[in-house]
Amino acid sequence: MKLEVKTSQLPNSGKGLFTKSDIKKGTKIIEYKGEIIDWKEYEKRVERDEDGYLFFINKKHCIDAFNTPQYKARYANDAAGLSRVKGFRNNSVYEIEDNKCYIVATRNIKAGEEIFVSYTKEYWDCIRYNISIGRGKK
Predict the structure, then answer these.
(1) Residue 83 domain-assigned (yes or no)
(2) What values do phi and psi take at 36, rounded to 5?
(3) Which of 67, 138, 63, 45 is closest to 103 using CA atoms?
(4) For residue 136, what are the CA distances in angstroms to 56, 87, 115, 133?
(5) What SS3 class is residue 24?
(6) What are the Cα distances from residue 32, in Å, to 64, 104, 129?
(7) What's the number of domains the chain is made of?
(8) CA–CA gap between residue 22 and residue 120 (Å, rounded)
(9) What pLDDT, in 10s, does the model give residues 37-67?
(10) What is the number of helices (H) and of strands (E) in the chain?
């Protein structure tokens, strides 16, 4: 499967992950890869502001893609996040299998489409809270 990273169609979302070929519903699009760390190490990285690409599997197994830009899965955005665009909706989900994480298509995706995957409501609630704290300090 051919995937490419380019500017996301979502405003203020940076780069996005796009497919160059059609993808059928149920297909594993890409594995979410990065450095394998535990939750304690991740908390240390948060303090250094080196977070933002973590996939939590369990307290002993987290995938941190912050320092691994070569792994393309980290560029998949959430269409239901902070900057929404009418007509865009998530077309895939994260699935865990044997301590690995994959982005899997939830519908047929046409060549040229951006890959959108849900980060979960809890993730966005946390982001909104952090933004509100940041605004309160200014």
Answers:
(1) yes
(2) -90, 120
(3) 63
(4) 28, 33, 34, 5
(5) coil
(6) 9, 11, 26
(7) 1
(8) 25
(9) 999 998 898 888 887 888 989 999 999 999 9
(10) 2, 8
Would you state the torsion angle of the CA atoms of residues 45, 47, 49, 53, taken in this order, to the nearest 10 degrees?
40
Task: Return the CATH number at 15.
Answer: 2.170.270.10
CA 133 from centre of chain = 23
Through-space distance between the first and last CA atoms of the chain, rounded to whole angstroms: 45
Please give the residue range of the domain that contains residue 22.
Answer: 3-33+71-137
Q: How many CA atoms lie within 13 A of 35 on its CB side?
A: 14
This model's pTM is above 0.85: yes
Q: What is the pLDDT of residues 59-107, one digit of tens each?
A: 999 999 999 999 999 999 999 888 788 999 999 999 999 999 999 999 9
Give the tokens for residue 112: 């040229």
Sorted by sequence, the CB contacts under 8 Å of residue 40 that are 6+ apart come out as none
